[in-house]
Amino acid sequence: MASPLIFIDGDQGTTGLQIHQRLRGRSDLRLITLDPEYRKDARRRAEIINACDIAILCLPDDAARDAVASIENPGVRVIDASSAHRTHPDWTYGFAEMNPQQARRIATARRVSNPGCYPTGAIGLLRPFLEAGLLPADYPMTINAVSGYSGKGRVGVEEFEGEGAAQVPAFQVYGLGLAHKHVAEIQQQSGLLERPMFIPAYGAFRQGIVLTIPLQLRLLAPGVDGQRLHECLVQHYADTAHVQVMALQESKALTCLDPQALNGTDDLQLVVCENQQTGQVLLAAVFDNLGKGAAGAAVQNLDLMMAGG
């Protein structure tokens, strides 16, 4: 039996390039991309996508929708790395560690939506608490995150590494209209009833993310504290390979969090910091926005789908 044919549509962007680099040396699959002269040829794109076994879409949202609409072959399976289908009820959300059943759902799915980079950290922290009843679903949630500039795609790389890089601010808060496209995904996939406040930023480093969520213990149920929240995370991710929960003793000794600490890996590290005197907890996630936040998750989902048939 021939190894599956994998089509990467959009292999010139930051995510697509990373996925291509990860897959091109593998012998258990055959890799195909669009030749440069055909990138704007809708007919050629449709021919290739309908001839492959699994298509990985690394395209803008509208182009991803068009690519999916062009699929006529019922045997074609899709991993969409855009945000076009992340809240769509007919698509399986590609966060394998989200719950004990999710990896199997991904393995057998026809359509998988790869999570956004920021939502990976937010959902990874929040969903276990909401499922366990430790966090009210209507909690007034605020999420702060700083990403490397590659999170902005090729535009960000050119901005920070091009000729005008010296004039680019070293730190930029954006999404000031409070309408970032990741908010709906975070709310739906974590289980929040109310829309969270999300404040993203870019720093002058290529890749890596620190995402933080502050909690006031007085707004939680009696008995819920940092230790109980930590225990919930440890239990939820006990059997996962790519999600690590920092030990409480280690988190107590922290003086800072480095957004680049897990660069080059596909891991997600979760941290619980607590000040018992003030009754406050800080949740944090550290990961590579191009690893677990993008290409790493896509390859993880691809491997599940290839194994699951």
UniProtKB/TrEMBL annotation:
Residue numbers annotated as active site: C117
Catalytically driven reaction(s): N-acetyl-L-glutamate 5-semialdehyde + phosphate + NADP(+) = N-acetyl-L-glutamyl 5-phosphate + NADPH + H(+)
Record localization: Cytoplasm
Pathway the protein acts in: Amino-acid biosynthesis; L-arginine biosynthesis; N(2)-acetyl-L-ornithine from L-glutamate: step 3/4
Signal peptide: none
Keywords associated with the record: Amino-acid biosynthesis, Arginine biosynthesis, Cytoplasm, NADP, Oxidoreductase
Recorded superkingdom: Bacteria
UniProt EC number: 1.2.1.38
The Semialdehyde dehydrogenase NAD-binding domain, residue ranges: 5-106
Described function: Catalyzes the NADPH-dependent reduction of N-acetyl-5-glutamyl phosphate to yield N-acetyl-L-glutamate 5-semialdehyde.
Family recorded in the similarity comment: Belongs to the NAGSA dehydrogenase family. Type 2 subfamily.
Record-given protein name: N-acetyl-gamma-glutamyl-phosphate reductase
Native source organism of the sequence: Pseudomonas versuta
